[in-house]
Amino acid sequence: MEFNPVFLIIDDNLIDQLVTQQLLKKVLHVNQVVIVNNGQEGLQWILNSKKETEKLIVLLDIQMPVMNGFEFLEEFQKLNDGIKNEIQIYIVSSTLDPDEIHQVKKNENVSGFLSKPLPTDNLRKFFIP
């Protein structure tokens, strides 16, 4: 089975963007990585650029300007199920705040929580079916 989703990195930190992109390419051999700087840009990309049957994996930071990760999840919830069913969202954060972690874990649209920096040793188990 071929593993060829598009990854959308939603993170305002340039270093985290570059490190995550390189990890995805080197560890998972991902071809398509899109990077945006906040939740608003991420939603716009999903609505304007995502192809109909394309599998999309979103790596979402929590703390960002303009629209943070929680605000993104609120807006994402409003999208139609046809779009939402083709998208997996993983929170990628360095937060240690138990309230934020609880909020992430109870969100039905979030597939998982990954700590920064991404765990290269078990990265494959998260994303490869």
Folded structure, characterized:
The structure is a single chain. The protein has a single domain, classed as Response regulator (Rossmann fold), CATH 3.40.50. 25% of the residues are buried. The longest helix has 14 residues, at 14-27. The radius of gyration is 14 Å and the shape is globular. It has helices spanning 14-27, 39-49, 69-77, 81-84, 98-105, 123-127; strands at residues 6-10, 32-36, 56-60, 87-93, 110-115. The chain has a 5-stranded parallel β-sheet, sandwiched between helices. The model has no long low-confidence stretch (mean pLDDT 87). Helix 5 (98-105) links the parallel strand 4 (87-93) and strand 5. The protein is an alpha/beta fold and 129 residues long. The modification 4-aspartylphosphate is found at residue 61. Residues 6-129 form the Response regulatory domain.
Helix and strand string, N-terminal first? EHEHEHHEHEH
How many domains, as an integer? 1
Helical content (DSSP H or I, runs of 4+)? 25-40%
Strand content: 15-25%
